Amino acid sequence: MALSIGQTAPDFTLLDETHTARSLSDYHGKNVVLAFYPGAFTGVCDAEMCAFQDALANLNNLNAQVLGISIDLPFTAKIFSERYHLGFPLLADFNRDVIKQYDILLHNFAHIDGLDSCMRTVYVIDASGVIRYVEVTENPGVEPNYPALMSALEAL
Predict the structure, then answer these.
(1) What are the residue boundaries of the structural domains of the chain, listed by start?
(2) How does DSSP classify residue 130?
């Protein structure tokens, strides 16, 4: 079961697409949108990250930092970020440590035996580190509910 609203978001450190270590605690004082996506260059994941990029000005106005997290290696994340001109970090959880910590491991992604990824999940974490919104899609082929996510951020 994914973490719940009202819980303190567990801190973590992962490499981003530039091989820079980024921790959730680096963003203390900002609202954070943690967007877990199964993998780069898959149609729905591409659409989701592009939707966050398209909304980046609005998110910045809400003091929100987007962090994309997938099982991809930093090298893949870099090409993915460059292809779509993403203006936010993509974090590489290739060991699936954070995915397990947030309890959103997805076994046999895309019906491929042994390919463990993450459930498509969005957490909104407030400036003090408390989870204020959680959405886990039952089907990884479904994008998050962006209006609900934006409403949660606007309420902070």
Answers:
(1) 28-154
(2) B
Rounded CA-CA distance 143/121 in Å is 9
Residue 118, sorted as left (phi over 0), alpha (psi -120 to 50) or beta, turns out to be: beta
Query: Taking each helix axis from N to C terminus, what angle separates 74-84 and 43-54, rounded to the nearest 10 degrees?
Result: 60
Please say if 118 is a catalytic residue.
no
End-to-end CA distance of the chain: 24
**Per residue in 45-88, pLDDT tens?**
999 999 999 999 999 999 999 999 999 999 999 999 999 999 99
pLDDT digits (tens, 9 = 90+) for 95-127: 999 999 999 999 888 888 998 999 999 999 999
Cα–Cα distance list, 43 to 20, 30, 49 (Å): 27, 30, 10
The answer to whether 2 and 136 have CB atoms below 8 angstroms apart is yes
Structure tokens at 5: 């609203």
Active-site residue, from 24, 44, 45, 131: 45
Beta strands 31-36; 121-125: pairing state: antiparallel
Fold designation for 28-154: Glutaredoxin (3.40.30)
| Centroid of chain to Cα 83 | 18
